[in-house]
Specification:
Length: 399
């Protein structure tokens, strides 16, 4: 019933999902100029609306479709991972149904999970989360006793499985609830876009497994009760943190009290990711919501082959022997000169310095880099992306 709970609230509740496929950031201390010269990449979320969706929503079906698509656009506008997320969208008449999600899952070892999160880190939030004092470390917080899983969509974003057009999960909505699909939210109705965004985010990976059957998900790593006090399970007093519990950004739902989702928000400010939705108000995807989605696998990336310009201060300059390379897949540089900038500490850049026709110009490039490094002045690099966090330099210039 609409008014069954205080504050005219209603549950965002997803069924225990059946496991699907199983297989064994940062603007630094100084501002930088980073311009995409060529190349375009986008995150694409594709809904497949069932016949039941249209039938059960009836005259509101077109408006409900548009609202769902608008909710998905919040995420495609915020992130640019070069993947397709394919979601089945249904509607049902079951009493008490509100919003539900059914993600598909992929199993992964913690070591591989850490490697992939590190390899695909691209934002300031990622830099904090995997850096010194961050919430995600190379050590398995379960000491090897837990099983780790990602949703299929998450696994694509982190390069664990290849992008494909297979179904990644589903979202279902109860049509017995009064919804507003666009514009000002009518008193006594619920913001359908907010409900849809809540469920879409769960298919994307915002779902806590939190120790059920000794199984955990990436979001569980960011749950803390205080500084250094990681709390992988659900319950009261758990907060979202990317800096090892020093900053508690928002409180998670007390699943021990209400037996609902462990990684929805506890409440407070109206928010799409809250466990309970108030009627008559907009429930938006907030800045902290996007921060959470950022650290659980999504970010701003450029496709391989993009030509990028960046300007910054050199913090690391290395020349090494032929063929030794730098980094590891998918961020390996087959180069002899390696550069890092303070403004983009997650990225490395390089070029080959070999006895070939490019040798004279490459030596001049190296001399310019060395001069800028010694003087502590800005340098401009033009590079092609060859991995999530690496680029091959083609030009060096004074900005």
């Amino acid at each position: 019933m609409l008014n069954a709970k205080p504050l005219c609230s209603h549950e965002f509740h997803d069924r225990s999902p059946a496991f699907g496929v199983t297989t064994s950031l940062y603007a630094g201390a100084r501002s930088s100029k980073r311009t995409e010269v060529q190349g375009e990449v986008e995150l694409i979320i594709t809904p497949t609306f069932t016949s039941g969706f249209d039938t059960n929503f009836g005259v509101n079906a077109t408006a409900a479709r548009a609202a769902w698509i608008a909710a998905a656009k919040v995420f495609t506008d915020a992130f640019s991972d070069d993947i397709h997320i394919n979601i089945t969208v249904d509607a049902i008449t079951r009493p008490g149904a509100f919003g539900e999600s059914f993600p598909g899952f992929v199993s992964i070892s913690y070591a591989d999970l850490f490697d992939q999160v590190t390899a695909y880190a691209s934002t300031q939030n990622d830099a904090i989360a995997i850096g010194p004092g961050g919430s995600m470390t190379a050590t398995d917080p379960t000491n090897g006793g837990g099983t780790w899983q990602l949703t299929r969509a998450q696994a694509k974003a982190l390069g664990v499985i290849p992008d494909d057009m297979s179904d990644d999960g589903g979202t279902t909505f109860g049509v017995e609830n009064p919804f507003t699909f666009s514009g000002q939210i009518t008193q006594g109705t619920f913001d359908f876009q907010g409900v849809a965004a809540h469920e879409i985010a769960e298919v994307m990976g915002r779902v806590g497994l939190s120790g059920g059957n000794d199984t955990f998900s990436l979001i569980d790593i960011f749950s803390y009760t205080g500084p250094g006090m990681k709390s992988l399970g659900g319950g009261g007093g758990n907060f979202f943190s990317i800096d090892n519990g020093v900053t508690l950004l928002k409180e998670f739902n007390d699943s021990a009290a209400n037996h609902l989702d462990t990684r929805d928000w506890a409440g407070g400010t109206n928010d799409s990711f809250n466990q309970f939705a108030n009627s008559g108000v907009v429930n938006p995807v907030s800045a902290v919501d996007l921060q959470l989605m950022d650290v659980i696998g999504y970010g701003r990336v450029n496709p391989v082959g993009s030509l990028i310009e960046t300007v910054g201060h050199i913090t690391f300059l290395r020349a090494h022997e032929l063929g030794s390379g730098y980094g590891k897949s998918p961020n390996f540089l087959d180069c002899e000169v390696i550069v890092q900038l303070s403004e983009e500490p997650l990225r490395a850049f390089g070029f080959q310095l070999r006895a070939d026709q490019n040798a004279p110009s490459r030596r001049e490039m190296f001399d310019m880099l060395r001069s800028a490094f010694i003087a502590g002045r800005l340098i401009r690099l033009d590079y092609f992306t060859i991995g999530p966090r690496v680029g091959e330099i083609i030009r060096v210039a004074n900005p």
